[in-house]
Amino acid sequence: MVSGGARAVARCDALAVQPFSDSAEGLTRTYLSPAYHAAQEQITAWMAEAGMTVWRDAAANLIGRYEGREPGARTLVIGSHIDSVRNAGAYDGPLGVMLGIEAVAALAASDVRLPFAIEVYAFGDEEGSRFPAAMLTSRAVAGTLDHATLDVADRDGVRLGDLLDLAAYPSARREAGEILGYLEAHIEQGPVLEAEGLALGTVTGIAAQLRFEIGLCGTAGHAGTTAMALRRDAVAGMAEMVLAAEEVATAGPADLVATVGVVEVPSGAANVIAGRSRFTLDVRAGDAAVRDRAAEDILRRFRGIAGRRDLGLSVRQVHDLPASPCDPALMDLLDAATAEAGHRPFRLVSGAGHDAMIMAALCPTAMLFLRCRGGVSHNPVEHVEPADAEAALAVMSGFIRLLGAKCDA
Ligand code: GLV
Ligand code: MN
Ligand code: MN
């Protein structure tokens, strides 16, 4: 018989190819794309097979519920996301959903009912790889979504409102009183666990994030006839800004990071000096004040560069996510379950963003990290050992049991 951890990994692998990927090669699954819907259909079947009642909410999250001893009991949410970055690895997100399904399948197989219900959430928009926003669907659930944020369009001009009923979207919200806590298992996406020789770690908190879209406006011109001194080149200005952001982050503390992940030159051509360019800027640090000072410094430098090069500069803040500490009591439970499963408890901070940081506005949160090979993620070579997934499943099952005992006490 295939163990639950190995099956969770195998299911992520199965979801990494068409029709569950939008691209013929590699994995790209963006929010509300055909691949997203196909993946939901497959996961619906797996949730139902594990003994859950399944539905989709107004934000297009997929939810499976396993009732507790009493119908309508308070709920432990176990979740992660099923959207991906472009050319993604198979495990960033889906593994947490698959492990949640396996944890429920194990309970159902031995007919165990708890003093709480369990709902497995497959969130939709954690990465922000389609629309210029991120974590829309968990923000809807946590009730922290500002309606104006939904007014977004993708690169092809398709608006979120063309795909979903935006008036209904906030009805995905859950009430704080009905949710007991949130547990997310996720690959670490960094090298710490591997360096420690550990399969698992308890997350203490998630770094604060700021994301911007930057636009530059110069003058389009002929590449052969326009003297260098006469140019207002939107690509050269962008290049200088990218390096300025790197310089500021490099000079700061080790957990301060700044990334330009998308650069675009609309109507770019080899023989045209770019009249317009745009790029994204993502700034993170464990401490929001450090992050904010760095972002101010970077934007001040951008203004200086734009002024010197006579370029128009527009700056739009896409999101501002505060640092999110995990719940101390739930961290203790995860540590206890880790020790019970025969592993050394170990705590670490998350530089990556997760739906857990949004859910923290609704309920106490806990995150369990799994080692991934070389710490590599957001890359098709992302790899998780099935044995580590097995260990994670044992810890999640122990956590659920310990939480049940605490509720009964
Ligand atoms: C999600 O992967 C993020 O940290 O941006
Ligand atoms: Mn990711
Ligand atoms: Mn993720």
Describe the protein.
This protein has 409 residues and is α+β, with helices and mostly antiparallel strands. It folds into two domains: 4-207 and 323-408, 3-Layer(aba) Sandwich (Aminopeptidase); 208-321, 2-Layer Sandwich (Alpha-Beta Plaits). The protein has helices spanning 4-14, 34-49, 94-109, 136-142, 160-163, 192-196, 234-251, 288-309, 328-340, 355-359, 386-408, and strands at 53-56, 62-66, 75-81, 117-123, 179-187, 200-206, 208-217, 221-222, 257-259, 263-264, 272-273, 276-285, 312-321, 324-325, 347-350, 365-370. Helix 3 links the parallel strand 3 (75-81) and strand 4 (117-123). The longest helix has 23 residues, at 386-408. The model has no long low-confidence stretch (mean pLDDT 96). The structure holds glyoxylic acid and manganese (II) ion (2 copies). The site of one manganese (II) ion (MN) has 4 residues, from loops.
Uncertain stretches: none
The CATH architecture category of the largest domain equals 3-Layer(aba) Sandwich
Q: Name the CATH superfamily assignment of the largest domain.
A: Zn peptidases
Helical content (DSSP H or I, runs of 4+):
25-40%
Q: How does the SSE layout of this entry go?
A:
Blueprint: H1 4-14, H2 34-49, E1 53-56, E2 62-66, E3 75-81, H3 94-109, E4 117-123, H4 136-142, H5 160-163, E5 179-187, H6 192-196, E6 200-206, E7 208-217, E8 221-222, H7 234-251, E9 257-259, E10 263-264, E11 272-273, E12 276-285, H8 288-309, E13 312-321, E14 324-325, H9 328-340, E15 347-350, H10 355-359, E16 365-370, H11 386-408
Parallel strand pairs: 3-4, 3-5, 5-16, 6-15
Antiparallel strand pairs: 1-2, 2-4, 6-14, 6-16, 7-12, 7-13, 8-11, 9-12, 10-12
This protein binds glyoxylic acid and manganese (II) ion (2 copies).
One manganese (II) ion (MN) binds at residues 85, 92, 127, 378.
